[in-house]
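Model it.
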Amino acid sequence: MTIYNTLSWNNHTDSIMKKMSKACYIIRNAKTCMSVSALKMIYHAFFHSVMSYGIIFWGNLSYNTMIFKVQKKAIRIIEGCGNRVSCRNLFKKLQILPLVSQYMLFLLKFVVQNKNLFTTNNENHNLDARQRNNLYLPQANLYLA
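Modeled.
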């Protein structure tokens, strides 16, 4: 049995969940004596930094639903709302991106900063098409022969 057979994101996800739960605890305790802008700074320092670290690698895992629930909990604590209040408007009001939007933003930033790693449609065929400057998406062969 090699080490590659035992690799898992479980340990990473567990440590993220613990750190973000601690961040929620800190925000809850600081809420009594701080303004919303100060709570937002605490959120970015303790919560957002942990959530966004390595998000390109783990952002598409099934565990991100648990992490998103903790993020919504932190947002509700900052705004002083109940558990059943929708967070859609709270994210907009606080100008904080939800987890999935953060993941997409980081992926797009990676693609823009590393254009040389990707090929365009024009490089793969010499047709003068409208989408010649778009990034080439290779077809995945999922069929087992």
